[in-house]
Amino acid sequence: MSGLVVARAGSRPAAVPWVPAVLLVLTAIAYPLTEGGAVRDAVSWTIVLLGSTVSVVHAVVSRGARTGAGVLLATAATAVVFESVGLATGFPYGEYTYSDDLGPTLLGVPFLVPLAWLMMAWPSWLLAHRLTRGGRRAVRVGVAAAVFAAWDVVLDPQMVQAGYWTWAHPQPSLPGIDTVPLTNLAGWLLAGLVLMTLLDLLVARTALAPPRTGDGAPLLVLGWMTLGGAVAHAGWLGLPGSAAWGVLLAVPVLVALAVRNRRP
């Protein structure tokens, strides 16, 4: 009986990241069902806050407090550096401006932006780790950076539509997406390579081994924000191009995961 009590107590931390993950899914469902303005802004803020919470809490629970703190600090610092340089120079994303709807800023970067990076970065690294388990660091970092950039392919048109930022020169762009330039994708790939290298080194030096929990909660966030976002774009938001790209980019990953999980 005492062993059963200990097992149940030990399983409680593993459930903690699932709470904000499930709340994020429910909130994301509400986004396309709301009208524009203050209500939709509040929904957007809530999604990002919940997503960043999932990342930090999961990193702490699964890999330890040092890893969780490192994920938070490394991601936030990298985001502020890249975004502030991007705003000042146009490199590496292209020339863009933020609206006042995103609230307070640091070096011109709205506080919401590093939190959005945090929501995206940790799940991207986890998925790459799962896809490339046993592989070289360079491969894992490259896959993680690609996932990181692909996620933005789906999300960026939605944020432009909401008026959160505007591109000075949105062309040339991906087919079907005429509001976001290709330079943005190149910038996300570069930023992703830098950030994922930092996260990979961080995990190697600080993480508990083996992880104390599975990676289901952050991977749910990644999957829902990509595929669920594609459904919302196609059905409610009038963004068929980014919806198609979301499906196109997600299918190879799902196939790779299925193949990977079938291997002995």
TrEMBL record:
Membrane-spanning parts: 12-31, 43-61, 68-93, 105-126, 138-155, 185-204, 216-236, 242-259
Record has Transmembrane helix as a keyword: yes
Record keyword Transmembrane present: yes
InterPro entries in the cross-refs: CruF-like (IPR007354)
Alphabetical keyword list: Membrane, Transmembrane, Transmembrane helix
UniProt-listed Pfam families: Caroten_synth
Protein name from the UniProt record: Carotenoid biosynthesis protein
Organism name: Geodermatophilus obscurus (strain ATCC 25078 / DSM 43160 / JCM 3152 / CCUG 61914 / KCC A-0152 / KCTC 9177 / NBRC 13315 / NRRL B-3577 / G-20)
